[in-house]
Every structure is written in structure tokens, then in C-alpha cells.
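User: My collaborator sent over this chain with a note saying "see what the structure looks like." That's all I know about it. Can you take a look?
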Amino acid sequence: MAGEEWLVRMQGSYLPNAYEEVVRKVDAQILTEEVALRLKATRAFVDVFEKQRKAGEEWLVTNEMADTHIPDIDEIVVSTIHRTSLTSRQFCVLVNPVDERGRPQVGKRQLIRGEKNFFLYPGEVLEKGVQNVFVLGQEEALVLKAKEECEEELPASSAQRGMLGIPLIPLLGAKVEAIHLVMSIFFVLNVLTRGVSWAIEAVQSPVVASLVVLLLAFTLGGRQSGKVKRGPGQRWMVYGPLEYLPSLEVDVVEKRKAMVQIEALNLYLFFFDRSAAF
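Assistant: Without extra context I'll predict from the sequence alone. Here is the result:
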């Protein structure tokens, strides 16, 4: 048919007929483990992999499908896609992940943690790119906020640690909280003014030692490990030492350091707004 174009893929020499015109020579694109091709159909056709393509449809060709690829008459190369690599300390949030048919699931999000290597398919994007897992030291904590209702596993370190000014034993009410607050301030002020040596000498007294034990019991004994339900907008903190990977429903507001650190007693106090839930 006049004006029709086609591709000749045969190896060796080719002698055009009298009614044929060579439009251009098309070189094969090399595919590797690091590079893939993003293609787009200019009209409906069946590609070299015997898959029906619709006009405007985009897809990916990787080295798992072929070592090289020659773009067909009805397809164009949109771009080359480089592989995304995640280490064991990295993660990403994939927006609009494709289904088993290669179609983007618009609006959906998927959490991916390394080690993992993958290509972004047409329509997929990374929310905030590749991110590092939060690694917290003994004196560090994260302020978190729930974007929607969710249920989160309480890290063991956060289950065992407390926070100044929060009722860690709610069943005993505000009186225990007030006692806890007064004891904390008294102990911390004395350590800051007199030094750690005062604390070491003071705990040798049975009375002071009992108060310290009670303080630590209030500070460390407020929660049990397990799953905790969070409501939209709720804020809370998780404490080190641990590696923390936020779920899809959680935002990391900020990273904080303990305002009071007494390493000799392994005591770290964090101040937080009282409207937050633990």
C-alpha cells in the first residue's frame, strides 16, 4: 500500500525493490540489568513480543525480555529508565504501582524496603525519592503523626521508656503524674547542680535509692509492647535505640534529642506537648 512503512529485521544484506524506499536505519538498543526502555505506541498494533498495544499506551522493555530491542514502526522510545536500588537501610514509597497487567493503580501507595532492585514502570513515581531508615541512638527520639487511622506495632524500646509530664500509669490518675513530675524535677535539678557524683553518693542512701527506683519504675514501666491504635492527627514519640521504618499512614514530624541526659544512670528525659498521645 502506498505510504506504508515496515521494519526489516533479517540479518545480512538487503536489496530494496524498485517500489521501496529506505527511510532510515534503526539501531538496536542494548538492555542491561541497569537500563530499560520506556516505549509508547503511536497506534494500535501487536508488538514483537506478541502483545496487543493500544494507541498512547506505554510500557517497559527490560533485559529479562530481551538483550536488545529494535523499536517498531508503531512505537517510539520515550526514555531510558535506570534501575532503582535500595540497600538494607533504605526504603521508598511507590505511588501508582502497576498491577500484574502493567496498569498503574492510580492513588495507591506501596512501601518498599531494601535490599531491592527494580525499574519504575510508566505511571509510577517515588514519593520523596529513596529515603534512609531512621536509626536512633539511646538519646534520640522521633515525633510521629498519624495521617489516618492505623494500627502500629509499638517498638520494644518505646514500650519500655517514659516521657516527662505524661501519665505513664493512667489508672492511678493525676496524683501519680504529679508525684512523678516533682520527683523527676527534684532529681534532675540536683544532678545538674551537684553533678553525677551526687547521684552516685545519694543512691547509697536507702531512702534516696527507694525514690530513684520508684522514679525509674514510673519512667520505664508505663507501656507494654504490642499493637497500638492511632487516630488521624494523633502525635506520639518512639525512642532509641532502634531502626524505625514509618508505615504508609505515619508522617515523621521531627527528630529530637533528650533534653536531659544522665548516661551514668541510663536516664534520658524528653519533653513533649501534653496533648499528644503516647
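A starting point for your reply to your collaborator: The longest strand covers residues 75-82.
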